[in-house]
Design brief:
Layout: H1 52-60, E1 86-87, E2 100-106, E3 132-134, E4 137-141, E5 147-151, E6 157-161, E7 183-186, E8 191-197, E9 200-205, E10 220-222, E11 243-245, E12 248-251, E13 269-273, E14 279-283, E15 315-317, E16 322-326, E17 348-353, E18 359-364, E19 380-386, E20 389-397, E21 403-407, E22 417-421, E23 435-439, H2 460-471, E24 487-489, E25 502-505, E26 510-516, E27 520-522, E28 524-525, E29 538-539, E30 562-568, E31 573-579, H3 584-587, E32 609-611, E33 615-618, E34 624-629, E35 635-640, E36 650-653, E37 659-665, E38 672-678
Parallel strand pairs: 1-32
Antiparallel strand pairs: 2-38, 3-4, 4-5, 5-6, 7-8, 8-9, 9-10, 11-12, 12-13, 13-14, 15-16, 16-17, 17-18, 19-20, 20-21, 22-23, 24-27, 25-26, 26-30, 28-29, 30-31, 32-33, 33-34, 34-35, 36-37, 37-38
Length: 680
């Protein structure tokens, strides 16, 4: 396939870009919409045998939209606009969590698609969504970017909407077809559901799943229109949900790391009117002439370096009208000879005025990034008490394994962050930042850097094999730069913290963070030039750090491979850290299965939620869903999901006062949404 620098690849030009995607269900009777009519999308499932009188009776039972959301709802991706991933529900608690059982299961039933005259080959990826629950209705997105409304008590499907995102083949990012959630807006009379599907932002009627005619063009807008330069739409993706603030819907974008050509998609963040789709503001994550930080892009690199995007979820301080952007790495991720300077606002937390898009403050967590150390998760808003003083804070979890804690209004660090010298690069043309920021508190929640003491040592033979592998490579502390020899990078490219982030108990100020301890090998080489790679140096693919042994590969480093850490944000101290999950392929390996191994932990990005019932729910990226005791991390309940649960769970309570815990599991044709509740 031939890709140009701009526009659509020639092999795709026969495909018509849809202006009015088709819905998978019928319209609501009389065009009624929103929770002031039927909860969520119930109209889509009401049979014609029901009388109008019965329908109106159901309408009268619905909670008014203009009030506060019921305490049992989960109305935003992170549970609340501050991304705490916290629930005040206590129906499920430490005393009875062992009685959880499967209540219902729903399947997307999405399949591989072969090439046809109207579609390119595609396959659904991991089911990674965290649903919303509003007035007994779940709203969620599927791997193929379908939007679905379900009955929160039974999993019965009310409606589904298919944007046809698969018609242009696989996305160019590294995840394939995944999507982690939707957002909603209401004015008290109607509710709209928003999904950012690839390069499109689509507004749907929450009651029927049909596009809103007055929003953009037939219910959608093109997010690539009027960026700082023209882009190839197929290289512009979205996996995280939009964010809604008052009458604005705010979106970022994703770009595949492997794309390293001039003028690849930029990371502009945009806000649109929720009613009309008109753009209200745009923020350039790569500052343009006259904008703050412009001088940090030397040799006019701001003219052509893309990425520097926000693919992770945003956070909003609704009361103050502030939005917090977790910005990722510029192109290319591992060599910066073509973008000398610190490269603001890459790998920065940026606070904007949500009404205008103007910068309020920022902090760069990595200068001139070379390690793919994106800020991967939604910043968490917390009110903490430090040395007797109440502070409205924002906590930023990095792939670096650090928690960066700031006053959310001023941007001042709550505890000092020091600039410390770091190793320098010897790659021709590279100019590494001489220092990097190190928070003095809290301590790192993930392993940083590597020494010979970190290698797998279950047997003397394995240890020697691992040491032999290391002798070929460059090792050292965190921020040891990529090299032509090959550098072992710890944390690796998925973190540290992953996109699942952490969960905060606002009553105690304790933060629960999932971490991955898995290295990455970054060996640079001079790639052949192509339409998608235009760089002096790039990361060589296909280089594994795994030890090749009889019976299958083993990891280079010793466990734990995944942990959960409880951090008291009032003091900055760790309260406990425990391995979470297991890795069966390692535990059952022929060389290890007769050994008394510790709990191994599991690598993976999915993070936790926390409840007032004293529970932390998560998989950590494995196939077991755990309920941990918030006091010490002990396992109070676990269940085998039968397949990987690579998603952040959520919890809610319906009008019948039954509490559910829901998690997306599996991938492709094996995907399902599983709901757990106490046995009746």
């Amino acid at each position: 396939m031939s890709h140009g620098t701009h526009g659509i690849p020639t092999s795709h030009r026969k495909l018509v870009f849809p202006s009015s995607p088709r819905s998978g269900s019928s319209s609501a009777p009389g065009g009624l919409s929103g929770e002031n009519q039927i909860p969520g999308g119930l109209w889509g499932s009401v049979s014609s045998v029901f009388s109008v009188a019965i329908t109106l009776a159901v309408v009268g039972l619905v909670t008014a939209a203009c009030g506060s959301p019921p305490s049992g709802d989960w109305p935003v991706y992170g549970g609340d606009p501050g991304a705490m991933k916290y629930s005040a529900l206590t129906t499920i608690n430490r005393d009875n969590v062992a009685d959880l059982a499967v209540a219902w299961e729903w399947r997307p039933n999405e399949k591989r698609i072969d090439n046809t005259d109207t579609t390119q080959a595609a396959r659904p990826g991991n089911f990674q969504v965290t649903p919303l629950m509003i007035n007994d209705t779940l709203f969620l997105s599927t791997p193929y970017n379908r939007v679905v409304a379900l009955d929160a008590e039974t999993g019965t499907e009310f409606w589904s909407y298919d944007p046809g995102a698969y018609r242009w083949g696989q996305p160019s990012n590294g995840t394939g077809f995944v999507h982690r959630g939707v957002a909603t807006w209401t004015d008290g009379k109607q509710r709209r559901v928003f999904i950012n599907s690839r390069w499109r932002l689509i507004a749907l009627d929450a009651a029927t799943g049909t596009p809103i005619p007055g929003f953009g063009n037939g219910g959608e807008i093109d997010l690539t229109r009027d960026l700082i330069w023209e882009v190839n739409k197929l290289h512009y993706t979205n996996t995280s949900p939009p964010v809604v603030y008052e009458d604005l819907v705010i979106v970022g974008n994703g770009v595949g790391d492997r794309l390293t050509y001039r003028n690849d998609p930029p990371g502009d963040v945009q806000a649109f009117d929720v009613r009309t789709g008109e753009r209200v503001w745009i923020f350039h994550t790569t500052p343009q002439p006259g904008e703050f930080g412009h001088e940090t892009w030397e040799d006019d690199s701001w003219r052509h370096v893309g990425h520097t995007n926000v693919w992770a979820p945003f956070t909003v301080d609704v009361g103050r009208g502030l939005v917090y952007l977790p910005v990722s790495t510029p192109s290319n991720d591992y060599y910066g000879g073509g973008r000398k300077g610190n490269n603001l606002f890459a790998e920065s937390i940026v606070c904007l005025d949500a009404d205008t898009g103007e910068r309020v403050w920022h902090f760069q967590t990595v200068h001139h990034g070379l390690w793919d150390y994106d800020i991967p998760a939604a910043p968490i808003l917390a009110t903490i008490r430090v040395d007797g003083k109440a502070i409205d804070a924002v906590v930023v979890l990095g792939k670096t394994g650090f928690a960066y804690v700031f006053d959310r209004v001023t941007g001042e660090p709550v505890w000092p962050i020091e600039e410390r010298p770091v190793p320098q690069s010897d790659v021709p043309g590279e100019r590494t930042s001489p220092t990097q920021p190190y928070p003095t508190r809290p301590a790192p929640f993930a392993k940083q850097g590597i020494t010979t003491e970190d290698v797998i040592d279950f047997t003397p033979e394995l240890k020697e094999l691992a040491l032999e592998r290391l002798r070929e490579l460059r090792i050292g502390p965190m921020f040891t730069p990529p090299s032509l020899q090959g550098t072992v990078v710890v944390p690796g490219v998925i973190g540290g913290a992953g996109w699942g982030g952490g969960a905060l108990d606002p009553e105690t100020g304790i933060l629960y963070v999932k971490a991955t301890n898995s290295p990455a090998l970054v060996r640079l080489f001079q790639p052949p030039m192509s339409d998608t790679i235009q760089a002096d140096y790039a990361r060589q693919r296909g280089n594994s750090l795994s030890l090749r042994v009889e019976g299958g590969s083993l990891p280079l480093l010793k466990p734990p491979y995944g942990t959960v850490t409880a951090i008291n944000l009032n003091t900055g101290e760790h309260l406990w850290q425990v391995p979470v999950g297991n890795t069966p392929r390692i535990r059952n390996h022929p060389l290890l299965r007769d050994l008394d191994l510790p709990q191994l932990g599991v690598s993976g990005s999915p993070g936790p939620i926390v409840t007032k019932g004293g529970l932390v729910f998560l998989t950590g990226g494995g196939s077991t869903l755990y309920a941990l005791d918030t006091r010490d991390g002990g396992v109070l309940w676990e269940t085998d999901l039968g397949t990987t649960g690579y998603a952040v769970p959520m919890t809610y309570q319906t009008h019948t006062n039954r509490q559910y815990v829901v998690i997306a599991t599996g991938a492709g044709e094996d995907a399902s949404l599983k709901a757990f509740a106490l046995r009746n």
